[in-house]
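Structure request: Carboxypeptidase regulatory-like domain-containing protein, Limnoglobus roseus.
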Amino acid sequence: MLTRKLVGLILLCALVLPGCGGDGPVVPVSGTLSYKGKPVANAYVHFVPQKGRPSMGSTDADGRFELSYDPQTKGAERGKHRVFVQFDGLAAQSKPGAIPGKAVGPPADQKAFFDKYSGSNSKVEVTVEKAESGLKLDWD
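Returned structure:
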């Protein structure tokens, strides 16, 4: 009886554990976004694979981001991605000194950055092969 339970446990582990070690199709991805060496805050970073589901993350004041594949899964699918950014006006609007109800755009020194790397304008590609915790997106 104990042997059957042990065999069942081993089979269960063999099926479940391969996805826990970073060997699955989605791997954790985090890093920093900067423009001309300065961190970009209040931005959404989008990774769009050639096939499959896109991932997205938002930057903090230091330009750090962590991608989410879906609400329960952090990371991005393995493979080549087109990367683009989008300004997060709502996050910028919630900062101290912002005028309530007034639309906020990117800082003047970053407007060209968002124009060049947003949506279909961006030609940036990144290949995700393994878990990445220090990805540096430093664009100029």
